[in-house]
Amino acid sequence: MSKVTYFNEIRDLCYIRRSMPEVISRRECINGNEWFLIFDDVRKKFYKLKGNAGEIWEMLNGENTVDSIVNQILSKSPDNKDAVIKDVCQFISRVGRKGLIKAAIRKVSEQEITRYEDIISSSALRRRSAGDGY
Asked: How does pLDDT run across 16-65, given as a tens digit for each residue?
């Protein structure tokens, strides 16, 4: 599967990275270079990230979709969009295989929430009118 096809499948997902106490992460300046350090306390493994990888890691907070992560990186440095998509997808795939991501959720729009609320309230009204109250 190409990275663009994979991107289209995951673009609306919000990934959630594992965090303390399981995984400890922080930015460090080592020999003049900025690194993002991750320690997985469960697997006892240490990872050093640089470049966009550290930024992507920080954005895996359950709030940013994959598409918004790509767009945020592009807004800081207008690289080739296909290259950024490839980097983001490869990074998510790698940290997923290493068990550093704990969930992926699809962001729900306000319109979908309103529609679900309408369905739930009409369903509750039907149950009440049928005598199946709470």
From this structure: 898 878 899 999 998 998 999 999 998 999 999 988 899 999 999 988 99
Please state, in angstroms and rounded to a whole number, the distance separating the CA atoms of residues 80 and 89: 14
Domain that holds residue 40: 3-107
Residue 115 domain-assigned (yes or no): no
Contacts of 62 (CB under 8 A, 6+ apart): 14, 15, 16, 103, 105
Is residue 30 one of the residues assigned to a domain?
A: yes
- Which tens digit of pLDDT belongs to each residue from 44-56? 999 999 888 999 9
Residue with tokens 């594992």: 18
The answer as to whether 57 is a domain residue is yes
- Is position 133 within any domain? no
73 forms beta bridges with none
- Distance between CA atoms of residues 36 and 51, nearest Å: 9
Cα–Cα dist 28/10, whole Å = 30
